[in-house]
Design brief:
The protein is of the alpha+beta class and 247 residues long. The chain has six helices and 13 strands. Strands 1, 2, 3, 4, 5, 6, 7, 8, 9, 10, 11, 12 and 13 form a 13-stranded mixed sheet that branches. The relative contact order is 0.09.
């Protein structure tokens, strides 16, 4: 079975020749899985362990039931190996941020390779102005009312109001949750920094469902801007200087 954990070990050079052969054969027989591999590789290459080894061990013990319940994730234990420690940290980030759903369901991907903004309409009627060199991913659960997407790059969202089904954007290590409003997200692939500017309504800007020393969350109103900087371990709120001039 080709699991996320196996692919992470492959990226880190921790797999055997037999496993390498198995992965190559899998990609040859299932070329549609190349998107999943590319997404995982992108996260692996850009992620840095955010926790000390002792904290990773504690988090792993806390979340181990989640890994055990998902048969697509093999159990590995954090060790003193820098590569394995990185794999454990990245898997913890994926579980904590809710990104695992991206790789375990059917994906719909929109890439904007043009030099101008591209406007798309999601199945719920939400309009997205996707910036150049930006990418948006959502899965088949979106069609069932689970309005969750993954954004890399820049986009302006005009979300269709549906209080019963919150709209969540995963960007970098942050999340933006709304029910119906207009806001702009800037999450460049070259940086972990995420910016959110609210044009109407309000949004919840956060990085974790649970509150601890590494979690941040804030409510943003129209005219406010939130900036999350994981490298500095901080989240700030300021005024949006373009609020009055933005249509």
């Amino acid at each position: 079975m080709i699991t996320d954990e196996l692919l992470f070990r492959f990226f880190g050079g921790e797999t055997s020749e037999r496993e390498n052969r198995m992965i190559r054969d899998w990609l040859t027989n299932y070329p549609d899985q190349s998107l999943r591999v590319s997404e995982l590789r992108e996260i692996y290459d850009s992620a840095e362990p955010l926790l000390a080894s002792e904290e990773i061990e504690n988090e792993w013990n806390r979340l181990e039931p989640v890994f055990s319940a998902d048969r697509k994730i093999l159990k590995i234990r954090p060790s003193k190996s820098a590569k394995l420690l990185r794999i454990a940290a990245v898997l913890l980030v994926l579980v904590g941020s809710g990104l695992l759903w991206i790789f375990h369901t059917k994906n719909y991907v929109v890439n904007n390779r043009d030099l101008v903004t591209k406007t798309i309409v999601l199945p719920d009627g939400t309009q997205v102005d996707l910036g150049p060199a930006s990418k948006l991913v959502y899965n088949d659960k979106f069609l069932e009312g689970v309005r969750e997407i993954r954004l890399t790059g820049d986009a302006c969202f005009n979300v269709t109001s549906d209080p019963a089904h919150p709209f969540t954007v995963f960007a970098g290590l942050a999340k933006i949750k709304v029910t119906g409003t207009r806001f702009v997200v800037n999450a460049p692939p070259t940086s972990q920094e995420v910016e959110v500017s609210v044009k109407s309504g309000n949004v919840l800007f956060y990085n974790s469902e649970t509150l601890d020393k590494n979690s941040f969350r804030m409510s943003l109103l129209a005219g406010e801007k939130g900036i999350f900087q994981p490298s500095l371990n901080r989240m700030d709120k300021t005024k949006d200087p373009y609020f009055q001039t933005t249509p």
